[in-house]
Structure formats: structure tokens, C-alpha cells
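Q: Protein A?
A:
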Amino acid sequence: MNYVIQSFSIPLHSFEQALTPLCMGDLNYRDAVWLGIVIGSMVAVMATFVAIFLSGLDSPEVMSSLRSGLVVGFAAAVVVTTFAYYRLLETSRSGKDPGAIKEQEVMRVRAILALIGERDTIWAKQSWSVEEKVRRDRGVLVVDLHGLDAPSAAALTDRLLERRSDLGRLKLVTGRGESTHPGSADPGIRPAVMQRLKVGAQSAEWQVIQKSSSVTLRPMGRAPTPKQWLGRFAVFVVPMTGAMTLAFRDLAGTGMESQGMTFGAAAGLLMTTLLSGYRDRSA
């Protein structure tokens, strides 16, 4: 049963991480349904194989395992779709146009970094224009540091930290920190940026996610108010607890239905409690 719990929880964790406010504006209710179907199908396949393995490879109970997998997959689909629908509902209640908000965010960052674009030192490899270097790439707000020198990159990072209250999620393209060809970023950019972030990112409530050639600044988010938490709990508790109860009743097998339902209800309440406390990472 532990294997099944792990296979059920991993996609949900990935789903919650994926549902940042930046991508919610690109999703609609139909997408939420398909997302639930896809994740539910993945969980169903994993749960079926786990159930076959637990039933014994010498004489596996294929039909029973398939039924268990389908029930668990359905439960996962219900949980994911419910969560996605509620997040979309929260976004729509704001009454704001996601497209207009994204455009305003780009213009705001360009205005904040306009002074950096005016810096011109003898070490700069090329001109740096906010109109060109601050943009959206596949929904993500990107600040490309190619063309800056290390002091300018450090000043840019300081500027972002100073104006943290006006900013959300950002991706800084720093390069790999090594000069491999004429178009490479200044090797000093990445160390300069990381040094500034090491000092100021935590106090600015930014989570620093490093990749080989970029750094993503992810807001740590605001915890929900008690009223928001109760509202979410009221919406989530019935579908999530019900789905988990039915799933574990089936997984428990003949003669253990009562114990399975009890465990499933407890797991559903725990999951509902955790999901109700997700943080708003839009700022």
C-alpha cells in the first residue's frame, strides 16, 4: 500500500508546483479537465502495476489489480481536477485580464531596469536595451543579462532586490559563467548575480532556483488567511476525501474494506488540509 501512496502523491506534488500564477492565466477549464485525465491515467497505470506486483508474480490477479488501478486513477483525476478548477475560479474572481496583467508586468520591469540600460562602461561587450532584453518567453518573464558586464549585472540585481515589492517571478539569463564563443555572456555576470542574491534573496522572500545558464527568482508566496483556508477546505474536503476513501477501500481488498475506508478518509483529510494551505506565489 505504501507503494501505491507514493505513486499517487508524486504527480499531485508535481501538479501543485506547476500551477503557479503565471501558468494559470494560460489554462482554462477544459485544460484542467484534460490535466486531471492525464495525471489520473498515469496514476492508474502505476497503481495497476504495483497491485499486480503485490498480488504475486507467480499467479497475479490481473483483473483485480486493473480494477484497483482504475479506482486509484479516478481518485487522482478527481483530486487534480478539483484543485485546478478552484485555482482557475480564484483567478477569474479577481476580474483582471491575465493578458493585460502580463503586459503590465513587462512594462514595469523595463521601467525599473531603465537606468541599467543607460549604464555604459568600457567593459560592456555590447549595448543593453530593456526593450530587447526584458521580455516574455513561453509565459515566463525573462531578463537577459547578455551584453552587461559584471558590475552592471550586480547593479541590476540590487535594483531588483530594492523593488521586490513591485515584482513577481523572474528568470535571469546569466550564461554559464564561462566564455566559450564571441556571443557568450561575461563570465563575471553569474558570480556577481549569485553573490547579491545570496545576501538579499531570502529577506526579499525570493526562492533562488539555479540552472546551468539561468537563475529563476520564485516568490515564496503569501500564506492564506484563515478565511481563505476555510473556504478552500470546504470546497476540497468532499471530493478529495470521498475519492481517497473509495480508492483505499478497493485497495484494501476483501475483508479489509472498513480499514481501507478509514485510512483513505484520514489520507483525504490530510491532503485536503495541505492543499488548502497552498501559498499565493503571484507576488
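Q: Protein B?
A:
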Amino acid sequence: MFGTSRTSRRRISTRAALLTVPLALAGVLGATAPAQAAPAHHTKPTSLTCQGKGIDRSAKVHYRTETFIKAPLRTIWNLQTDVEAWPSWQNPVIPVTMKRLDHGPLRKHSRFQWTIPVPPGMPYPPGDVTIVSTVRQLQPGECVRWTGPLDGPGGMHIDGVHVWNFVKVPGGVIVRTEESHTGPQVDNDVPDSTAMLGQGLEIWLKDLKKAAENR
């Protein structure tokens, strides 16, 4: 980005890393740095669903994207549903701790917790941001949908809904994802929050593609 200082670039990188979690922390924790625009989508495809349920259609902030991954469906599905192992193949700038709150394969009603420290220099009190996600729908090898509130210092709160679809095609799998956010921190700046959410989802897909294709 032209004319961007090293400090600003570090802030953008931190926000991009935070956005790899299912709620757009970058839009909240890094509100002082400009968002990099996500790739433009010129058409408006049908909203993704899992067992008939999708994102929050009333949300002002939402984003959908997809990628082709040249890897077996089983490999991709196992990476995406082993939530405690996400930090091993994602590349966050700041540490993210994942914890399953139940045992066994990911399934309907499974819950998992994200813990992310607020980075220094952000306009929020020090402390941790916590997300508790609950799987609402899951069809093995086909789709998963979870919801989860984000809560953090200074009254931070965002509600998110995240849907993933996996479609086998010749030579690999098309992975599609869509997410919505609601809450005052994102509703107060819809364009920037949407751009940052999109940036985070693009990073997530890029990391998933790299991890799966390198297996």
C-alpha cells in the first residue's frame, strides 16, 4: 500500500490475522487502521445454507467467497473440523487459543472457544476477546454452520453466523463460505467492517487451500 508506514502495515497485518477467526475482530480491535479491500464480487449469488439454515439475512455486514482446492474432500473436511488444530495451519500474527468444550468428532451442538488477546496499541482496554461458537447444523462432508457471540473488554460484542459448504468436483473440491456479523462495533461502519470481514475470509480460504494441498 503506497504511503503506508511500517507501524500501519503491522496494524493491518494484525487485523488480517484476527480476521481469520469467525468474527471480524479486525473490524473491532484494529479500527484505527485502514482496511484493505477484499476482492470485488460483481454478482450476487444465492446465500449459502446448511440443512436449510444460513447467515443472518438482516445483518448489514456479510460476505461470501469460495475457492477450488486440489485435495481430497476427506483431507479438507478433517482440517476444517479439527478446530483445536486450526492454529497449526493458520498463520495469525497474534496468538489464538482454541479449545473444544466437548469431546469426539465435531457435530451438531458441539461448542468451541476462541481466546485472543487484544493487541497493544488498539483503542480497547487490555484483556482477552472470547468467542464461544456452537455448531447448529452439520452434514458430514457437505456443510457446517455455527454461531457465536464475541465478547471483549470495553463492552465489545458482536454476533456472528458462519456457513461452510464443500462440493466435490473433478480434480478436487470447491469450498464456499459465508459469514454475517451484527453489533454496534460493526454496524457503525458497514463498508469498512465488510471489507475487513472479506479480507479475513479470503485469508482463511488461502490457508486452508495451502494446508490441504500440501498434505
